[in-house]
Amino acid sequence: LQTRMQSLQPDPKAQYRTVYEALKKIVLTEGFWRPLRGINVTMLGAGPAHAMYFACYEKMKKSLSDTIQHGGNSHLANGIFGFLHKKKSSQLTALVKQRMQMFNSPYKSVLACIRTVQKTEGFGAFYRSYTTQLTMNVPFQAIHFITYEFMQEQINPHREYNPRTHIVSGAIAGAVAAAATTPLDVCKTLLNTQENMALSSVNISGHLSGMVNAFKTVYQLGGISGYFRGVQARVIYQMPSTAIAWSVYEFFKYFLTKHKLEKRTSL
Q1: Rounded to an integer, what distance in angstroms lies between the CA atom of residue 41 and that of residue 111?
Q2: Structural domain range at position 156
Q3: Cβ contacts of residue 93 below 8 Å, gap of 6+?
C-alpha cells in the first residue's frame, strides 16, 4: 500500500485517496493475496538484519551512555547509535520488493525480477537509491531510538519488563520516525521503481539516478505535498512493525536475563 500510494504519476486505475480505499480496491481488482506481494523477499532479509540490529543495540547503548553520561540513559547516546546503525535490509531486497508491489508489475517471482532488472538496467540499478537510503536511515534510526527511550522514561521509569509499555513506546517511536523521514522514502521509492509515467511527464529519458535528482523530480511532479505521499500508509506500517520488534526484543531480553540469574542462583 505504501509503495502504491507513493506513486507520483499513478495509472488511473491505481489512484487511491486513503489506505482503506487502496486496500479495498487492490483486493477487489487484483485479488485477495495481492497486498502481500513481496512478503517473501522481505522475510528473507528481516531475520539476519534484526539479529544484528539488537545485538549491537545494548552493547553500544551501554558503552556510549557510560562515556557520555557516566551510566544511566543518554538521549545523545541513543541518537549516536541511530546515526551509526546501518540499514537493516539490503538495497537489493528493497528494490525487488517495491518492483513487485508496483501496479501492473510484470515480475512473477523474486528471481524473475532480479534477472530482468540486471539484464535490462545493469547491476547498478540495485544501488540507485543507496545514498538516499543511507541518508534516510540516519535520521530515522536516531529519532526512533531517542523517542523509544524517552517514552520508556515517561511510562516505565523503573525499566521493568512491561509488554504494554514496550508496545506503546515502540509504536510511537516508529510513527514519529516514519512521518519525519517520509520525504526521503518517497525519493527512494521513485529511484527504486523508476515510474515510466512520472519520468516521461517531466521529459526524463532513460533512468533517474541520484538523491538530488530524485528530490528535484518529486518537487516537479507534486510540489511540497509530493514529499509526503503515502505518509499515512508509512506510519500505519511502521507502528505495528516497531511495536512488535521492541516487544519481542524486550521479552527475550527479560527471559534470557531471568534464566541466567536463576542458573547462577542454583549454582
Answers
A1: 10
A2: 138-266
A3: 41, 42, 44, 45
